[in-house]
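Following up on my earlier message about threonylcarbamoyladenylate. Here are the inputs again, as you asked, copied directly from the submission form:
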Amino acid sequence: MQFLVRQPSGPDLVEAARVLRNGSLVAFPTETVYGLGADPENPEAVARIYTTKNRPANHPLIVHLADAEDVTYWADSIPDYAKSLIAEYWPGPLTLLLKRSANAKDFVTGGQPTVGVRVPNHPLALELLKHFKAAGGHGLAAPSANRYGAVSPTSAQDVADELAAYLKPSDLILDGGSALVGVESTIVDCTGSNPVILRPGAITSEMIERSSGIIVQDPTELSPKVSGSHKQHYSPKAKVVVSSSCAKDNGFIALAEIQTPDGAVRLAAPKDLGEYARELYAALRRADSLGLASVSILPPEGEGLAVAIRDRITRAAAK
Ligand code: TXA
Ligand code: MG
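Thanks, got it. Here's what our run produced:
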């Protein structure tokens, strides 16, 4: 595969940063899912993210930073509670929406008055961001590296399967192994007096309240809509149903303690919530590679990471 760089070395990352500065795309691993990176200050490069993903142009992008201090380049005002979250959870699976600075142009923010930023917790991503910064860049715009509406990729091979047909010869996919979290970052709107979770993830509402000392509020009608919060998203080709029963030869996903229904194809049997989040998307992809017509999923109960897992399952199952 021409795009894939297996076990990228230091020089490979310097080259990837150079390629990005020249306006090409580089898919890279993060702790959550793989991202499709471009220079957020190059409108043509950012436009290619949208065409490659087939994503509507008004859907904003997250800017990934090498360092927490770089946030002031992109954001104008950062409330104290957001500073606490940054201090505690960056690098990590937490995206903050902040009032944008003049550097965050409409072509990155989708015309929103805010910008989404995070420092990812993955050694390859951080090294790439460091090299990109050394080359004069200010972070990387990167949505999940899948076609719009499809399941996010948790391995470099997933990215290649999903996007190779749409990449250009100068683009790269950096292989950093399987994603450790497996579901996308928590998105928190930090523009009001209280944090609002727009997309649940591994940084939970309890963790945000403990760290910020402020109550998390529910989204309102006026809260920004994130594309991952559109009712249907994260969908494989197979039909997804939320159910503990499963017809013969259809896929089945549930915690290991749940038995496989007779004749079902077990796609994942995670032992705990962490494993559930890590394996969910790969299991949905396997359903498609096996050509299964339908997948039954029994979501996990409870709080914490279970909230994010249920959110993604519900959206995968939405029509
Ligand atoms: O874990 C993640 O967040 C991954 C990795 C690659 O970092 N990225 C990711 O990006 O999931 P994406 O584009 O697939 O999902 C980000 C969501 C989108 O639904 C987008 O609309 C929303 O965040 N978003 C980003 N900036 C926003 C803003 N300023 N206002 C409202 N929504 C925003
Ligand atoms: Mg996405």
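One observation from looking it over: The longest strand covers residues 94-100. Hope that helps, and feel free to reply on this thread.
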